[in-house]
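INTERNAL AUDIT FORM
Audit reference: QA-55
Scope: verify that the stored structure record matches its stored sequence.
Auditor: D.O.
Record contents follow.
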Amino acid sequence: MAYKTILASLNEVSQVRTVLSATATIARNEMAHVIGLYVIPAIELQVGSEIQVVPVENDELQKYFKQQEKAVKAAFESMILEDGIEGEFRVIEASEPYIAATITEESREADLVIVGYSSSVSSRALGADFSERLVIGSGRPTLVVPRDGHRGFAHDRILVGWNGSREAARAIFDGVPLLQRADEVLVAIVGTELEHRLRAETRREGLVRTLLRHGVHARAIDLDSSREAGKVLLERAETRDVGLIVMGAYGHARLREFILGGATRSVLKGMRCPVLFSH
C-alpha cells in the first residue's frame, strides 16, 4: 500500500501548522496528492426565550471559521509551494452546524487522514470525541497529531502496539509505508489477558517476519501486558524517544470503551507524539 492521496483536516485552526508539517513530510516521501479540507459550519438555530419560542440564528461559529479561512488557506498554499507538493485547498460549506460528519465523509476518498486532536474552540463545531469518531467512521488510517505539539512527526523510531486483534493488524499494515522509513520499529504486546498472551506472542513472531520481508527494521520488545495498554505505550514512547505510535482503535465494544475509557482514549489524551490509528 502507498499513500497517494492524503487528506489533512484543517478545522483545528490552532494546530494547522503542526498538521501541515506532518502532512508535508509524508507527502514528500510518498509523492502524494494532498487535500487540505476546511469546512464552514452552517448557522446554528437556537430556541428563543419562553416568551418568544422562535428559532434564533447563532452565527458565532460560522463567523469564526470564515474569519480563519484566509489564514488557513495561506498556510496550506505556503506548504505546497515550499515543498513542491501537489495539492488542493478544498472549502466546503456544511449543511449543519456540526461538521464532523462532513469531514468524515470527505475523508473516505483518501489513503491517509491527518488531523489535530480537538481543542476546546473547534470542538464546538466538530463535536465531542471528534478524533475517535473520525477513526471509527472514516474507515481510513488516521494520523492524530497531539494537541500540545510536544513532538513533530518523525520516522526514526516507531512503537507498535500488538494484541493479536483485527484492529491491531489493520493499523500495522495500514502503516507499512511509514514503518518502511523508520530506523527502528518496536513491536510490543499490550493489553492482552494472560490466557491469550502466548497466542499473541506466537502471532507476533510471524508478524515481525512479515514486516522484515517488507523491508521494515522490526523487532519484538517486552512490556508489562498486565497494565492498561494505553499507559504502557505512552510510558515506553516517552522513555525511548519514540516519534510515532501505531495501534488499533477500539479493540473492545465501542460503547464499553466510551464509558470506561480504554487504550484508545487514554493514548489520545496523553500522547506526546503523533499516533496512527486504524479501526
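Auditor finding: record pair retrieved intact. The first strand starts at residue 5 and ends at 9.
Action required: none
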